[in-house]
Amino acid sequence: MTEARYHWNRPHLLTLEELSADDIAALLDTARALKEVSTRSIKKVPALRGKVVVNLFFEDSTRTRTSFRLAAQRLSADVVDFAVSTSSVSKGESLADTARNIEAMGVDAMVIRHRSSGTPELLSRLVSCSVINAGDGSHEHPTQGLLDVFTIQESLQKTDRRISDIHCAIVGDIIHSRVARSNLWALTKLGAKVTLVGPSTMCPRSLEKLGVSVSHNLDEVLPHVDVINMLRVQFERLTSAAFPSLREYHHLFGLTEARLACCRPDVLVLHPGPMNRGLEITSAVADGPRAAILRQVTNGLAVRMAVLYLCVGAAATRG
Amino acid sequence: MRPNPPPFKSSQEIRVRSSRIGYTVTTMESRPTLFTNGKLIHPDRSRPREEELLVVDGRIAQCGTGLKGHAPRAKVIDLQGRYLSPGFIDIHVHFREPGQEHKETIATGAAAAAAGGFTTVCCMPNTHPALDDPAQIEFVLNQARRADLCRVLPFGAITKGREGKELAELRLMHEAGTVGFSDDGVGVGSAAVMNKAFQYVKMFDGLISQHCEEPTLSGGPMNAGLTANRLGLTGLPAAAEELMIARDLILNRAIGARYHVQHISTAGAVELVRQARANQQCVTAEVAPHHLLLTEEACAEYDTHTKMNPPLRTQADVDACIAGVVDGTIEVLATDHAPHAREEKEQEFDRAPFGIVGLETAFPLYLEALVRRKHISLPKMVALMTLNPARVIREENVGTLTVGGRADVTVFDPDEEWTIDPARFKSKSRNTPFAGRKVRGRIKMTMLEGRVVYQDGVESQVR
Hints:
Chain A is an alpha/beta fold. Chain A has helices at 21-35, 63-74, 95-104, 119-126, 142-155, 178-189, 218-221, 246-253, 257-260, 283-286, 293-318; strands spanning 52-57, 78-83, 109-114, 130-136, 167-171, 193-197, 213-215, 227-230, 268-270.
């Protein structure tokens, strides 16, 4: 990376697929610098004072919405939370009309969560402010991918290893997971080795063409990896059951203490939440010493501050 | 018995009863028309001919040289070296009337057809309500007569309400003027219902035109595969199309009803049709321009103008479709003209409706995909847009320049360059992924039964 010459100039964060390794490194570096703000007694910097950030959440979310809200507030932006159930969307207003109306009130960034893949791209063509993807359908969840990589990087701090030395397993319903895609792009762009693990109905071999390995056998993969990212089984996105029963899924792909015992002693366990305890991950693992699940949440705030700071800044420069 | 059409208001108009389609109408041309200095494309001949064409009373009266003496009073149209072919025929369009007139009406659709060089189009019955009874068929024919810009021949639904459960009144619709039957938009999912449909239409040699998509494998907004996986979209697999074609071919093997595969889009589907034809089975197939020019990669930016059904497939599928056109497996070029309003297409990718408009862009796009890339000759392409579709729907007296046939004529310049600008479409809708594309080949004039219904800069010289 040629730091001296690098300059972030993207007004939107729509996908990690379209970012370069330099872009991702810049986001992570910025997040590292901003993480300290949350440790102060007065948790605020004036970076986005006078800016307006709108949270457009068309799908339920606890941590991502709260995290974006706090991130914007710590940068001193004004934040509006848009709740679909109390909005005109429930009266049948289209996304395009909703977006143009909100933009007409003068906003600097829209943070969008939507059940349809590609909606942030659509929104970015409809409005002229920054658009931040907070998760679109089964496509991407860029800030989750970034915070996962950030958390992995942090765990490497006291070692001499870098992301490019890491082998990460992403386990579960890969096809329906936006977290899987964003992790895949971030990790492979930074040079990490990635193995996708899941039932063949949710993790097809064809994904190998994206530059990763694919396995249907978790037990074979576990001893070789440094990081295990356990995805949530998303019942809301399964049109028909892609596996026969919960106990069969748990039997094949659940992360249990017994399986953890087969892993490297320093293995890092991630989960994007919300967890189906007892299904993809047991409580003993989730609450145990190898899990970094709450650190992920903490880091998510720093990453989202970095995203808002850089994107809104770039949009302002463009005028 | 067919009901009589309503009386016409103008005494200038006469009624011409057709053997199969109820009626069409033409105004009496007070004077014959003579086309001179043109290259005439006869779809059954391999080379264009420098000939004159004389049109009298809406019919082709003569073809040859030195015709001026035969019709001294004729209006002369100097083609200045341009090509003249039979009017194009598109056996797959959606005109949205009744029920969705905000997308297209039969009048605006007919105007778009004329602008695209089409003089006969077949509209699909997936309207609201569906065209599933003879009164609906008569309504469409009446609306077409009022518009009077293009011959619009309806397909009737195979099943009531296009629900795939009970056969619609196929014979009554046939007598009212349908050219065939289709539940287009969906395929008939039940093998038992489809079996009955084949048996029933065989009784009067009716045509089944199937939208081939096995319903239990459908649901996705784009082609299944790595690109869909990358974009986080559900896939619509090639197998869904191929399964229904294979099923229909098996069902129809013993029955032998006329069977037409709509908008073929996969390599496997082309191979199924090729094998069936080799086995002398009664099957024809059509393709749409976008399936010869675009692949699933076009969906990468979630532009809903790349969302159609069947979806854009892979390059291997595109190549197979072109090979199918070259070897005659696919003998009809259609458009699947599917208008949608801007606000309907300006939606989330998985919510937006399927389909794009095609009538006003088909000619240059087919030229690009097939003739410019040297897959087939210009006269062969014209045959696939005239004579062949006329044969599929068994329309006599259209699709050729035969003396005595209807004077449906299209004049075009295959080399004129232009840029596709949806704002200039005659269609009510502008949903096309080809906006801004630089193309070559332009329709200069369209004549329907001796009347000029579209004109772009061809001056008629009255002598």
